[in-house]
Each structure stands twice: as C-alpha cells, then as structure tokens.
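Budget justification aside, the reviewers requested a transparent look at the raw inputs and outputs of the sequence design task funded under Objective 1. We therefore reproduce one unedited record. The lines immediately below are the structure tokens for a 417-residue chain.
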C-alpha cells in the first residue's frame, strides 16, 4: 500500500515539477523580444520522502528549482534612439521608481524622455546618474547611490557664453602717414549670448607705433545705438623689421560695462601677437585683416542628447556647443545572480548579492555603456520549443502513472470487498 502511495506522490511531484518547467518555458517564450531579458532555466533534483533500501522502496519524487542567469550577456543591437543604452559587460544601470525613494538595477536600457523630461524605460523605471559640470566633473560626489539623481532633460536650458578672448591676425600698412586711421569691426557676445559689434580704430601715432581704441558696442543687427560702455586703449610698437615688440598695457584688456541687455560686465583680453607692420605693394594703403578668432557663443536651445562610451549624457545645442550634463554609472555586485528579481526586468539588492559598487563606464570589468544600442533577450526560441516538447511528454507520463496507480488502488479495494 505504501509503495502505491509513494508512486502516487512521486507522480504528483513530477506533475508539479514539469508544470514549473512549462511555466518557466512559457515565460521565456513570452519574453523573447523583451529588452535584456535573461533566460530562466528549471533544474530538477530527487526528492526522497522516506528511507529506502534494496528490500524496501517507498518511492521518491522530484523537486524543481528555477534559476535565471542574470550575468549572461545578450547581443547588443543598434537602435534609432540616442537615449537607448546597452552595457557590454557585467554591470547594471541604476534606476528608481517615480518617487526616487526606491533604487533598483536593470540592464533594460530602452530609456526615452517622458512628458516631464525624465529618462524612463518601458517598464517605468527612471534612469539615475551623477550631475556633472561642463568639464565632466561630478557636482555632488560619486561612489554612492545617494549622490545620484533622476536624469531630467527639461532641466537643461539653452546656453550662451560671453566672449573673453580675441586674437587678431592682421597687417598694418607701414606706408600709412602719421595720423591715418583705419577701422575694423569685431563681433563679441555678452553673457546672455547677445551678438554685438565693437569698432576698433587703428591710428598711426608715430613711426613704428600705432594705437588701438574701441568704440562702444552696438547690436550686430542695428548699429545706430550703443548698448554698453567700452574702456580700453592700447599702444602697439614694432621694430624696424615690422614685427610687434610691445603692447601697452600688457595684457590688452577691453572692459565693457553697462550692457543694456542686462548682461554681466565683460572683460575681453586681446591677443595682438600676430599683428605685423609691412608695406603691401599689391594693394592700397589699408589694414589687411587675415582672421579674427574669438571665444563666446550666442544663445542656443537644446538640440539633441547623446550618450558616449564613458557614460556621459552629452547635450548639444543649436549654437554648435556641446558638453556633458550627467554621467551614467555602471553598478556591479560580487554575485549578481543573487539579486532579487522585480517586475519590469529589474532587480533589487540583497545581502547575498554583496554590496553595490558604482563604476565608471569602460573601466575594469563593469562594462561599457553605449548609446543608440539595446541588449537583446538571451532566449533562444527554438531551444525553448524543444524543451517544451520534453516537458509536455514528461508531464503526460506522470499523468499516466497517476492513472495507473488509481487503477491499482481500485483493484486493491475490490479485492478486499
């Protein structure tokens, strides 16, 4: 009687184990196109319920355990979205729920900007990163999740920068008469990105000596009125070979105050080192201006966002400038397979997984972040269908054992009547 009960229990455990396997296979097949999904596998082990011997066998069973190989790397595929990301390596993106209170980890990098400007993946997790300055230095420290914040692109406003340096490459006519004057227009930008013209007047004051004086700035689009006050006059001396010897004062700094645009005062350093004094026999007496190079840019709205292989989120603006605004770290654990699985293809930290380590993309074995990319699911659909057939057959066989055992119980009961 006990052996029949053992057979029945073993068959029931087989049904349960194969049901688990079929459920696992179904989940894998359902997630064959899920970004960065890691294939789960069902492993089986013998379940012994009583002591057995060669003369007494009470039957055993089977137990099923589901494992997910979180470390398994999926194929990195190209994407058309600049904010889609993949990690080639062992690490994870750090994400949070909408409130930002709960931190999770994921490799699902299908991040896109939502209505509030946050980068959110399809599962609703918010990408976190370090806010950085224009040189890429973190503003609030690194190394802990407390230093991270949800990445918000709406916080990135348009940018502008004031002109601080101007370099002039020009030739002053050596055959000009003392007292002759020439003018050159120079475009500069105030701190608000407004374009302004400053007229520079060259005056020959003596043999091998010139002065450079500046008029008040005016709008580049309308030179009829001044929009600030210029202070700055410089003397340039040349040797008998036409080369500049001294500039007084040195450095040559033009100060502009009282911008009517509301911009901050400007302090612009001029580099005259490439200014010479020669006679150009092929032209009339005039200043030959080869080039004017300057820094500063006019205002430009945010144009696009990209991600580089150091995990920097790069903001590019319509004025041609670009700089990093966030850095996405790569999180690693000593045993990532011990992470707790969460809905939405994410994981939460556990004691067995070890402490989280936040790494710079591309350094060590943590992995490298790449934009315009997504990690594919690790599910092999053909393999799963093969496993499904095996599980179905095993399930049917266990069901047959139950049917046969039931018939044997019926026969036993009939014999006792």
């Amino acid at each position: 009687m006990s052996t029949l009960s053992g057979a029945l229990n073993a068959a029931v455990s087989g049904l349960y184990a194969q049901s688990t396997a079929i459920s696992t296979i179904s989940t894998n097949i359902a997630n064959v196109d899920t970004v960065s999904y890691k294939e789960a596998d069902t492993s089986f082990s013998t379940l012994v319920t009583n002591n057995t011997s060669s003369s007494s066998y009470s039957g055993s069973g089977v137990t099923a355990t589901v494992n997910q190989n979180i470390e398994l790397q999926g194929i990195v595929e190209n994407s058309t979205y600049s904010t889609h990301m993949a990690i080639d390596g062992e690490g994870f993106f750090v994400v949070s729920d909408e409130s930002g209170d709960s931190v999770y980890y994921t490799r699902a990098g299908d991040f896109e900007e939502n209505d509030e400007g946050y980068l959110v993946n399809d599962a609703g997790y918010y990408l976190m990163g370090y806010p950085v300055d224009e040189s890429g230095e973190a503003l609030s420290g690194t190394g802990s999740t407390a230093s991270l914040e949800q990445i918000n692109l709406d916080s990135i406003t348009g940018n502008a920068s004031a002109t601080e340096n101007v370099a002039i490459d020009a030739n002053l006519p050596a055959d000009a008469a003392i007292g002759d004057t020439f003018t050159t227009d120079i475009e500069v930008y105030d701190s608000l990105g407004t374009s302004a013209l400053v007229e520079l007047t060259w005056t020959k004051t003596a043999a091998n000596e010139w002065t450079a004086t500046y008029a008040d700035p005016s709008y580049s689009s309308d030179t009829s009125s001044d929009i600030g006050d210029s202070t700055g006059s410089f003397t340039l001396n040349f040797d008998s070979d036409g080369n500049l010897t001294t500039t007084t004062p040195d450095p040559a700094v033009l100060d502009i105050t009282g911008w009517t645009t509301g911009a901050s005062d400007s302090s612009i350093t001029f580099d005259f080192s490439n200014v010479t004094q020669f006679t150009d026999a092929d032209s009339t007496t005039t200043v030959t201006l080869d080039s004017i190079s300057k820094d500063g840019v006019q205002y430009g709205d945010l144009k696009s966002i990209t991600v580089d292989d150091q995990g920097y989120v790069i903001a590019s603006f319509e004025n041609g400038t670009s700089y990093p605004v966030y850095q996405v770290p790569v999180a690693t654990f000593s045993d990532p397979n011990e992470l707790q699985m969460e809905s939405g293809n994410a994981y939460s930290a556990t004691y067995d997984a070890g402490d989280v380590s936040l790494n710079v993309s591309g350094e060590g074995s943590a992995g490298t972040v790449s934009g315009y990319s997504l990690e594919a699911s690790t599910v092999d659909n053909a393999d799963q269908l093969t496993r499904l057939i095996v599980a179905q057959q095993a399930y049917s066989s266990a069901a047959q054992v139950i049917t046969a055992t039931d018939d044997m119980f019926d026969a036993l009961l009939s014999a006792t009547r």
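Residues 164 and 257 are 14 Å apart (CA to CA). Residues 2-69+378-415 form one domain. Computational costs for records of this kind are itemized in the attached budget.
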